[in-house]
Amino acid sequence: MVFITEESIKEFQTLMEEIAEPLKKTFQNVHQGYPSGTLIRFLKARDGNVSKAHKMLVDSLNWRIQNEIDDILTKPIIPTDLYRGLRDSYLMGMSGYSKEGLPVIAIGVGLSMFDKASIHYYIQSHIQMNEYRDRVILPSATKKFGRHISTCIKVLDMTGLKLSALNHIKITTVLSTIDDQNYPEKTDTYFIVNAPYIFSACWKVVRPLLQERTRKKVQVLSGSGRDELLKIMDYASLPHFCKKEGSSSSRYSRNGTYDDCFSLDHSFHEQLYNYTKEQAKLLEADALIKQGSFHVDFPEPDPEGAKIAQTIETEFQRLGNQNGVSNSLRGIKINAD
């Protein structure tokens, strides 16, 4: 476990006082009034090494300036049908809050297809959700719960995970690298639910490659994880794919009776989308609204991330090459009756 000392924080603060003014300006959007907390996050991401943490943060601030990240919430993805297609093919949303006030972010890993638009739109949408979380959701939670809240909980639904997930490994690696390099230590716990055999087999291989602090954050729950998750959040905050009991937990309908937190019609996405349109109007950004996707430079994955991605790909291929496994996995359903 990394222990961050007061001395290292002060040393980091001194280094940040020397950065250029444009970097200081974008740093304000990052720390949202809690600069020390941000320094601690980057220190944790670099195992307490001040020099490496400083380089990581400065690189991230430069990335924000070069890619105009501070303005990304003024650039809605239009038309609405295109954005709806993104939401239907990249399943991610917010279902509520934990009992401690942490936002609950739901991700449909197994059923996300990333097939409705170019990679640039998915990256734009992903970063917009990150920025909306950090600039709107977390400050609001901090005010509501009366304490500084800077992290979230993520519930990853593995329903429908198949060998075809290899087709998405490039874009998922890009998205995870963006998070690792520019939004470190923003997730308190990752809960894996509805995990099929293919995930379990890969997890055994990938888990030892993760850093200890990351391994401790990941919890693989039985079935839909409903009972375990209810210990830390109310029923209303459960992602829709966790609300059923028993072995049929994964057989939910995305248009059924449960509140689909992935859909554009969910309150979280409606509020986020309306927020970006309102911000565009406030800045008289009509010209920007008419433009195409918002291009962000693809980050290069660090060696550790590249190794993990390669390991996942190799393990998927190994499973697919086993006699009889490929055919059975193509039609696998999590916890099927």
UniProtKB/TrEMBL annotation:
- Please list the residue ranges annotated as the CRAL-TRIO domain: 79-239
Q: Which PROSITE patterns match?
A: CRAL_TRIO
Protein name, entry field: Phosphatidylinositol/phosphatidylcholine transfer protein SFH9-like
User: What is the originating organism of this protein?
Assistant: Coffea arabica (Arabian coffee)
